Amino acid sequence: MTRRYGFRNRRRMLKALGNDLGTTVTWNESDEQTPVGPMADIFATTANIHKWLHYLPVYESVVSPFRARPVRMLEIGVARGGSLQMWRRYLDPSSIIVGVDIDPSTRQFDDPAREVHVRVGSQDDTTFLKDIITEFGPFDIILDDGSHMTSHVVNTFRFLFPHGLASGGVYIVEDISAHYWKEYRDTRMSFVDFTKWLIDAMHAHYQKVNKEIDYRLDHPYRKKKIRVPLATTLVEKVEFYDSIAAIHRAQDYRKLPRSVFR
Questions:
Q1: What is the side-by-side order of every strand in the sheet holding 116-120?
Q2: Cα–Cα distance measured from residue 261 to residue 252, given in angstroms and rounded to the nearest whole number
Q3: Who contacts 176 (Cβ-Cβ below 8 Å, separation ≥6)?
Q4: Whose CA is closest to 198, among 168, 173, 224, 166?
Q5: What is the pTM of this model?
């Protein structure tokens, strides 16, 4: 039997926020209509799709830079096939879109003539993921909308970000809200928890020195080489929105920062 872990940090969260930010207020529903824009227009006319409406402007912001050229996209979670069709309409017509799902019935959405490909397998199976990368990758965009289980989301990212995401690519994890619900927490560490460590890893080079002059340009103490986790060199930036995150991979590898004193 799989153990389920609850979200346990509410008191610590409120304490960290302090009296003002932690004050309880009433949050009302929005009166806004469906978002506008190319993505929203496509979403409104695509069948068999289920998305939170506030994801649409996030997609617009994160994915729109990739529309100007053919790209390769991997979507984990096919369901009824509507999301694959949305991306087919949104991205460059020559883009390759790959969907993976554990449900054999999703094979019906395989459409090689339109460069939409579906493969059946588990996101928790690295051998399966390796085969996907070999056949179609590396990918410019990876979107995890799969099982939402904490172990699956974290382990899939651990494997695909370094091995399956192209330089300059973006890795999107949606429905992070599920990790606040016991049904999806089969590990103590949620993706939110994991991302906090990932952000620490982005700054690992500062943990190896004691002062700014170690990175100052033309200073005799300047560090020219330093040992850090691979993640430090790969993660360009991390964006968080309501229940969705976008982790951007650097173009090639990040270089050590430089400080300038004049």
A1: 116-120, 96-101, 72-76, 139-144, 165-174, 244-249, 235-241
A2: 28
A3: 190, 191, 192, 243, 244, 245
A4: 173
A5: 0.93
Q: Which residue among the candidates 50, 54, 117, 148 is catalytic per the annotation?
A: 148
Told to judge if 148 belongs to the known catalytic residues of this protein, a careful annotator would answer yes
Measured in residues, the chain has a length of 262
- Tabulate helix, strand, coil % of the chain (nearest 5): 40, 20, 40
Two structure tokens written together for 191: 């993706």
pLDDT in tens, the chain (262 residues): 556 666 667 888 888 889 999 999 998 887 766 788 898 999 999 999 989 889 999 999 999 999 999 999 999 999 999 999 999 999 999 999 999 999 999 999 999 999 999 999 999 999 999 999 999 989 999 999 999 999 999 999 999 999 999 999 999 999 999 998 989 999 999 999 999 999 999 999 999 888 888 888 888 888 888 899 999 999 999 999 999 999 999 999 999 888 888 8
CA distance 262 to 260: 7
| Long-range interactions of 196-204: CB distance < 8 A, separation 24+ | 198/231, 198/235, 198/238, 198/247, 199/238, 201/228, 201/229, 201/231, 201/232, 201/235, 202/231, 202/232, 202/235, 202/238, 203/232, 204/228, 204/229, 204/231, 204/232
Chain position carrying tokens 């994160």: 62
Distance CA 61, CA 246 (A): 10
Q: How far apart are CA 50 and CA 101, in angstroms?
A: 16
